[in-house]
Amino acid sequence: MTTDWTWLVPLPVVLPLSAAGLTLALARRPRLQRIVTVVALSLVLVVSAGLLVLADGGPVVVDVGGWAAPVGIDLVADRLSALMLTVSSAVTLCVLLYSLAQGQQDGESGAPVSIYHPTYLVLSAGVANAFLSGDLFNIYVGFEILLAASYVLISLSGTGERIRAGTVYVVVSILSSILFLVAIGAVYAATGTLNLAQLALRLPEVDPGVRLVLQVALLLAFGIKAAVFPLSAWLPDSYPTAPAPVTAVFAGLLTKVGVYAIIRTQSLLFPEGRVDEVLMVLALATMLVGILGAVAQDDVKRLLSFTLVSHIGYMVFGIALGTETGWTAAIYYVVHHITVQTALFLVVGLVERYGGTTSLDRLGGLAKLAPVLAVLFFVPAMNLAGIPPLSGFLGKVGLLEAGVAVGTPLAYALVVGSVVTSLLTLYALVKAWNKAFWQTPPEELPRTRVPATMAVPAGALVAVGVALTVFAGPLYSYTERAAETLIERTPYVEAVLPDGRRGLGESADVAETDDEPGSDDAVEVDP
User: Fold this and answer.
1) Count of C-beta atoms within a 10 Å radius of residue 418
2) Are 294 and 111 in contact (CB under 8 A)?
3) Is 16 within 8 Å of 122 (Cβ atoms)?
4) Residue 76 parent element (H or E)
5) If DSSP codes are grouped into helix, strand and coil, which group holds residue 220?
6) What 3 state SS string does 191-254 have?
7) Among candidates 443, 417, 466, which has minimal Cα distance to 359?
8) Fewest Cβ atoms closer than 10 Å to its Cβ: which of 91, 96, 160, 355?
9) What are phi and psi for residue 47, nearest 5 degrees?
10) For the segment 418-469, what is each residue's pLDDT rounded down to a tens digit?
11) Is there a contact between 284 and 318 (Cβ–Cβ < 8 Å)?
């Protein structure tokens, strides 16, 4: 007798939402709020790890409310979504522990507990819902949940600078949400469904011109959320002004939810690759413009914000190639970047606390004054720059191999652009390292004590980044299997719409391309 584990799938959404309600009820009991939040996110991490194992045997699907797809909404944990969910859960838990320690040291002045805890839990639930959703509108709901929470988090403490940055962030997010909603309406008008598996079956029957418009509309909405050039100018002005834990979780997760949405829709709904060349150009522009902006910065938070934009280009590079090796490298790089970028922002928060600033012109001498901070910064910085044999190097090598295998002029241009971007990333981070840790500071630093309770979560994420290198073999194999599932698409469709549930006029056998029925992109469902 086999055990039915489908009940695990909604828990990463249900647990944080339930805990958010409980923490609101405990607004006058800050200690209980902290306990509830830590327990809830710890359970989410355990459940996510369990789904990671289960999904390796095939997608795990649950019908929300008992309404079967395509009528109801499904939550689907396949290899890709389970991997993203596990990494995001680990990151949100580490950032939470960091923020709790910071709050205790600062007397909660920077993040009122009664607001912070429920909002942070709602953000976690929104991220999980976006990753697990098997329905286009429910992905929109997930985005709106996490964005509503992020509006509060980015403006915590209400300083003028944070309110201004929060206003820019809110306006851009609302614009992207409107575009996404319009795209959803157009998709439904053209196909009569928003279920992703059913869309994979119905979109081939739509006029190619209309299908291209739908694809571009969705990419435009997701491109803003993912900060793909030229839709990325908002990010470097918005993220650095928030408190360190908020900046870290935003940098690590929010743009990656947009990248995930691009991966999911491009692989499942639009596998014919009609916009791949455009995506390649955008990937190259994102890499180069982002890293040139980073090189010009004299504030380490803004420098990292520009590198965040730049390295989104690497992920779009893998997506644009449209090959199994490209998808594999892109997924691995997403996992690497979530971990390393979050760790760097947390460490920079420690640097700011110790030195009283993030300005590279005012910092200095930290290698001697705070050697532990020096190590905590150096390791993820070199990882982000792609120094061998760290995970950043492995991910970039995978992307370069995939680009060379495609062999088109644009692919080679991206290969060259990737190498140049990596070298400029190294230059920018070495410059930051030299100024903050080796130069003589122009004036004496405050040297505020950094508590171990803040350093430990940051160190844990740095260690996770190193673990991505140590266990690169098993992880890369998992991402290969995830990419294989994305290319095949049949396991996803059959898990969500098994025989007898396709309904509404689909044929039993559907070839999902404009090419021959026997092409690699075919989605075949046995009658």
Assistant:
1) 23
2) no
3) yes
4) strand 74-77
5) helix
6) HCCCEHHHHHHHHHHCCHHHHHHHHHHHHHHHHHHHCCCCCCCCHHHHHHHCCHHHHHHHHHHH
7) 443
8) 160
9) -65, -45
10) 999 999 999 999 999 999 998 888 888 887 888 888 999 999 999 999 999 9
11) no
